[in-house]
User: What shape does this take?
Amino acid sequence: MPLPFYYKARALGRRGAAWRKVSFGIGLLLAPLVLEGIASVATWLGDVLGVSALGLLGNLSIRQSPPGQLAWWLLSLSGLILLILGFRQLGQPRDRLASARQSWDASRHNLESGTTQSGATPLPDANTPSNKTFWQR
Assistant: This one.
């Protein structure tokens, strides 16, 4: 896991599967760029040094063939999907917390207004004289 993501995982909690998806998704997005950069540098070094074997590495460039472009597209798409799934998985506990708070606020409002969810008035409080047992009177 890259160092910034390691620190972020430590700060926000260890949800290993989600962070692995995010890290792997970023890796898949960057892989075609790194491979293209290696091919370009190898071609340049082959031209400067006069080594034809390094110049041949330029033929391995992703952009020079339709299957390479398809591979670039598939790697980018799968990386983006993994990023979406990872960040969605990281946000799910927050969504659950927000929905729990919303239901808590709604039930609290209903109790303060004196109605229940069914619209009926709530039962009398246990401290009212009519609900006290014989030995509490």
